[in-house]
């Protein structure tokens, strides 16, 4: 069974969600504020996170960077804020999905499962990747990291994960597929856009900055992901 961290200050909503999610074979850990959620993440492994934006100790979007320092599991914002700007802000900050309240439990469960499938990089039954034991074509060296296309993650030589979010991985993968060639921001945006999220050029720049940091690339003189003025970015392999 997979474990979900539910961060919401509405006790009655947490109760209703917990009942519904447990009926769908999830284990649910509850947190009523941001501080408690960070404590839980430091002590427990969770498989996905549901985050409300309006918490008693701060704005949910401001909590996302702290969460991302601890885990890269799917993070789904569950909020009553319907403005497009709120969705973009949350997704740009590092969330993987955005569900607007009120919602159907079936839709929420479907979104959770879809994000988990994507996170784990599950292959379709009978696919070429599953029918062979040769993983060489799915492992690509990027600096000191091994990019694993099956696991949607990067690992160092000790097999420690680099903690990339799904979008950070997809952004890196798009650059790797065009290694040593400039890729414009629009094409990079296409690699990470979803039905309810189309990244702005500024959002791409922010994500590249975070990606460089996780790769250990120098911020002032990057050697792995280079900025190509007037175009976009290029990864050097």
Describe the structure.
It contains eight helices and 13 strands. By secondary structure, it is α/β, with parallel strands linked by helices. It has helices at 11-23, 34-43, 60-70, 84-93, 105-120, 166-177, 185-192, 201-215; strands spanning 2-7, 26-31, 48-51, 54-55, 58-59, 75-79, 97-100, 139-142, 145-148, 153-155, 183-184, 225-228, 232-235. Strands 2-1-3-6-7 form a five-stranded parallel beta sheet, sandwiched between helices. It has a three-stranded antiparallel beta sheet with strand order 8-9-10. It has a three-stranded antiparallel beta sheet with strand order 11-13-12. The model is unreliable at 122-136 (pLDDT under 50). It folds into two domains: 2-120, Rossmann fold (3-Layer(aba) Sandwich), CATH 3.40.50.2300; 136-235, Orthogonal Bundle (Arc Repressor Mutant, subunit A), CATH 1.10.10.
């Amino acid at each position: 069974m997979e474990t979900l961290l539910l961060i919401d200050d509405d006790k009655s909503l947490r109760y209703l969600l917990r009942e519904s999610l447990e009926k769908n074979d999830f284990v649910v850990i509850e947190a009523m504020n941001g501080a408690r959620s960070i404590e839980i993440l430091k002590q427990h492994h969770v498989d996905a996170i549901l985050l409300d934006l309006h918490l008693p100790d701060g704005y949910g979007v401001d909590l996302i960077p702290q969460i991302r320092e601890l885990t890269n599991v799917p993070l789904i914002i569950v909020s009553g804020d319907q403005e497009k700007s709120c969705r973009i802000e949350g997704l740009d900050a590092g969330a993987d999905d955005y569900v607007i309240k009120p919602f159907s439990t079936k839709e929420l469960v479907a979104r959770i499962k879809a994000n988990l499938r994507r996170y784990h990089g599950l292959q379709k039954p009978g696919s070429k990747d599953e029918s062979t034991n040769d993983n060489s074509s799915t492992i690509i060296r990027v600096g000191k990291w091994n990019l694993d296309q099956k696991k949607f993650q990067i690992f160092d030589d000790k097999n420690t994960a680099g903690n990339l979010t799904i979008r950070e991985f997809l952004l890196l993968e798009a650059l790797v597929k065009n290694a040593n060639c400039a890729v414009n921001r629009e094409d990079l945006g296409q690699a990470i856009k979803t039905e309810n999220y189309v990244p702005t050029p500024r959002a791409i720049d922010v994500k590249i900055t975070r990606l460089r940091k996780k790769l250990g690339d120098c911020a002032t003189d990057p050697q792995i992901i280079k900025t190509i003025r007037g175009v976009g970015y290029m990864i050097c392999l």
